[in-house]
Sequence to fold (175 residues):
Amino acid sequence: MNALFNGVDKNMFRLINTCTVANDAWEILRTTHEGTYKVRMSKFHLLTTKFENLRMKDYESILDFHMNILDIANTSSSLGEKMLDEKLVRKILRSLPKRFDMKVTTNEEAQDIKNIKVDELIRSLQTFELAINDRCEKKKKNIYFISNTDEEDVQCDMETDESISDAIVRQGYVI
Fold:
């Protein structure tokens, strides 16, 4: 009883200070924090719905999505229902946006989903995400040329035999 009394805050102490048996105090604390069986089942059903509806957003990173999955898995575990790695791996693979389709297909065909650990999958997806982001950055650095629609300007440039870059700089376009 002394350990329970010392381990709770003032408000919780008020709930259990009249108890003489540690088991009674423990049950009061458990019911207060977890709720009754009906409350726990209701929380679990809401959590299950949240898990089923969870999808990774296009702007979301793998790390952020992983944190959302872990939050749900940890809450489920605290309610007494531990989620298996296989279930989490399948959910992650189903919930990824289109840009990960190639990686999802590779994982499903090359590996046995039952044997993949969540952490291994997340590391693999983070590496893939870095490669995708790197490719996108390189595409943004490409040079774009804007053509003139006015044929007189084009004819003039060709007649004066200016180099293309001189014409672009003269027109005010930046390479």
Q: What stands out?
A: The radius of gyration is 30 Å.
